[in-house]
Amino acid sequence: MRWRPSSQSQIEDRRGSGGFGGMSGLGMGGGGIPIPVGGGIGGIVLVIIIFIVLQFVGGSGLGGGSQGGTTGSLDPKDEMGQFVNAVTVDVQTFWDQEFADAGQSYSNTVTVLFTDGTQTGCGAASSATGPFYCPADKKVYLDPGFFDELTTRFGAKGDFARAYVIAHEYGHHVQDLLGTMDQVQQQQTSSNANELSIRLELQADCLAGMWANWVMAHPDQSDVESITDQDVTDGLNAAAAVGDDRIQEQATGTIDKESWTHGSSEQRMKWFNTGFKQGSLQACDTFGASSP
Ligand SMILES: [Zn+2]
Hints:
The chain is about 45% helix and about 10% strand. The chain is an alpha/beta fold. It has one domain (about 1-285). Zinc ion binds next to helix 4 and helix 6. The site of zinc ion has 7 residues, from helix 4 and helix 6.
């Protein structure tokens, strides 16, 4: 995977800011959406405090860096920060074009980088939560430490495995903008909640595959300059590595299909590949498929 640091900044860098006693053990696994945990007033107050502090120190992070060239002190200078930023900008460049082609408008958001714990519109998050998208504040949250875990614990290596994780979370942002996330929330009952969650997650995998299709078809056009067949294999491996069956087997030695929320390794690979091969939203209709 060939990439270059982006001239735009779509990162909100909270690394090293100490965290706020994040809530661990939500058991999200890779690429989860956290269930809003009530947070309430305390959470809102903390977010406001963070906002004020960031304003005070001249940060440019909050409020979405949709325009290029913001050079606040929070722009990442390290390679990891630049990598996450480049992928974020690239994925959003793709979706911006895709929405425009369909006569709709995409709204840019940011990836919040944090270490240990941070406060989000969906409650407190810790590194143990895993990367996630919060529909309440429309931001993607990521502790880059997860990438080490992806390699050591889940056995998925390569830059593109990491890029897939970011693209998956932006798939949730797209689902949010398209209203899919709301529809799922309205339809969820105690008996179909996991089934709908799996379809939502597999669709996010498919949307990540659509981005990979676009990068492959347009080398040198954007910040992620090109990917190879090996990268696609790394992406598929990562999708398999965060399958519910794989994670459960690793953690407990048994597989309990009823408790799945993201889909099996095979399903996740299948839908990433569907998006990659077909490159269209229609192909990513995991809700219409009789068995996804
Ligand atoms: Zn997800």
